[in-house]
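step: validate -> pass
step: tokenize input -> pass
step: predict -> running
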Amino acid sequence: MSSSQEVFKKRREGLLDEAYQIALQRMSAPDKGEWDDKALGWCLVDLIKRCVKSGQLDYLQHYRKQLLPFLRVLVLFILILPYFL
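step: predict -> pass
step: emit ->
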């Protein structure tokens, strides 16, 4: 099975749709880790930017819904972090 490193590599190569498909497969992998979550999150950010830039908003809501859980974790981290410093 592919890794999160391959997802990041495909994104850098401009193969965003392929990277996204690999990232989705990684979500159900038994060895899924934090970097797999990050890889999918960045794919979703890029997909959303592509939708907005091209004006093709058909999938925008779908990608936004997938990204939402990642944003919630990030916001919680930002709010809680100062208490540990």
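step: describe -> The chain has four helices and no strands.
step: cleanup -> pass
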